C-alpha cells in the first residue's frame, strides 16, 4: 500500500526550539536548558532544536511566528518548546554564531536535518517544513516528468495518486498539502513538485497558482494506459483538499449522462417498447450472476479472474490448436504449448500472463506460441500426458517435450524460453571458448536471464562423471546456463582456477567472480543441488516470486525493509557478517517497498502502525513465529548488528509479535455438490420401472467395462504425475512449504 502510517508520531513527537531568553509573547512556550533538553531525548521521538545566545535580539519575530505555530502543531501531536543557551555553553549548537542561525531536527539523539532559520519565516513555513520532514515516506518530491511517470506506472492497479504543484516550499499551499498528506498519506501516494516545466508538461500552463491533481491509477489494469486525471478547481486550502479527496473516493460515473427529448406520447411509447427486450435480457443476466457474496470469490485467483472477465485479451497473438492441427503444428516448428482449462481460475489467470509473454516476444522469437483448451480437447490433453492445469510444454523436433516447472508468471516463463534456446550443457571445445563462456561474452544476450554460468571440467576419461553432469544439465535446462569442457588441455583451466578435477566453475557475472567446487563422487542429484544452491544470492532482494525458494532453506529470515535502494553501508555490514559466518543460521535478505508494496502490509501486521524506515527484523517463520526488531535508535553497523544477534541467541531480546499459526482458508465455504444431490434425491424417491430392467443391465455392463478400461490407464497416469512432481520438485518445494506454514511474513 502506501507509505508509513504516522500515527506513531501522534504519541509524543517533541518539537523543540532552542533560542534566547525572550519574554515577549512567548509565554505559551515551555523553556528548557541545554542539559535538560538532551536528557529528555528519547529513542524514536522527534524534536527540532534552535540555539542562540541570550543577548541576541534578532529572534523576536521568529519567536512570534513560532508561538503562532504552537496550536496547529499540537493538533498533530507535536509539542513546542524553547531552550535557553548561556554564554558559558560550548556545545556545537550554542558555541558558534553561524550555528545559531539554524534549526536542527533530531530523532532520538540522531541528527536528521538542519534548517536555516530564514526558511522557517512564518507559521505556515514552520508547519509545512516540520510535516514535510516527518512525512518523508508519504510525500515524494520530484523534478521531472520521468519521475512522475515512473511513480504512476508503479502504482497502476494498486493505489491512487495526489499530485501537487506549489510555487515554493513553505507557502500556505505547501502547508495545506502536508496537512492533507498527514491524514491521507496511508491511503494515497502524495507527490509534490515546484518545477514549472513539469506542470507545463502535463498540460497546465497556469504556473502562477498552486494546483492539485488526483490520478485515478488504482483501477488501471492495462499498464499501457494512462491514469485518468482530475484537476481540483478550488484554491489549495486544507478544507478544500479534504472535500476534493472525499469527492474522489465516490464511485466514478462510467458514461456521460444523456438526456432524451421526445415531442409526443407516441414517440415515448415507441421508445419504451423498443427497450423492453433489452432490459429483460439484462435482468436475466443479472439473475444468473447474483449471489449473496457476488463480489467475493472463494479464492483470490478466482476473484481476480472474475473482476477482469471483461478485459479483452489479444488471443490472436497465439495459435489455438485442436486435435486436428496439433501434430502438424508442433512438428513443423519449435513450439511452446499452453494446456489450460477455460473453466479453471488459475488457468485463466495464467492465460493473461501467457498473452503478455506473446506481446513481449512478438516479432523477435522463432518459437511459436500456441495454446490448447483442454475443456474442449480433453482427449488431446490426455495423449500429451497433461494431468493438471495449467501446464506449459516446449516441443522441439526430434526431442521429447520439456515441461515448464517454474513460477506462473510472464518474466519467469520468458527466462525459461530464452535459456532453452541453447543446449544444456553446451559443449565447449577450446580454452579460449571456455574463457569467453565464463566471462559472459559467448552468450552475452542471455546473461540478463542467468546471473550464473556453470562450467563442468572433466578429464577425457571421466565418462561416468560427465554423464552425471550432462544429466544434471538437461534437468536444469531453461533455468541456468551450463557448459562442459573435457579436452586434453583441461588442466590449463583447472590450474588457473585451482580446481581439482572433476570440478564445477561458477561464474557470477554480477560480482565478476569465478569460484570452483570439487565434484568427486557427486551424482546427478548432488550436482543439481550444488547448482541450485549456487543460484541463490547471498543477500537477495525478496519478492513475491522468489520468496518460496528462500523459505525452502527452513531458516529464520533477517529482513532489511527499505523504501527504495538500501544504504551501501548497511549492505556492507551485513555481507561482512555473512563472510565471517555469523549469519549461517539465518537467511539475510532485504525488501524494497517500492518494488514489493505488500511489504507495507507486512510491517503494519508486525507493528500495528507503519514504523520509520529502514528497519531490520528477524522473522522466525518455521518454529514459533516470533518477530524481533533491531532497535530503531541504533545505526545498522557490523558491531551493533552482531551484538544484537548475540542477545537474540541468548534470549535477552523480547519479540514484538508472534505470527499466528492459522490456516489459510477461502472466505466462502466450498459447495458439497454430492450432498446437495443426495438431499434432492431423498425428497424425490426413485420409482421402480420393470420395463427398464434390460436397459439397466446394459448400463451396468457398460459401466463395468468402462471401469476396467479406467483401471488399465490409471497406473500410467499416476506414474506420470509422480514423474512430473519429481521433475519440478526443487522449484515447487519452497512454495509448498510456504503454503504449509500458513503464515505471512
UniProtKB/TrEMBL annotation:
Domain TXNDC16 N-terminal: residue ranges: 28-131
Xref: Gene3D superfamilies: Glutaredoxin
Chain ranges of the Thioredoxin domain: 319-418
Domain of life: Eukaryota
Pfam family, one: TXNDC16_2nd
Extent of Basic and acidic residues compositional bias: 686-711
Listed name of the protein: Thioredoxin domain containing 16
Naturally occurring in which organism (per UniProt): Canis lupus familiaris (Dog)
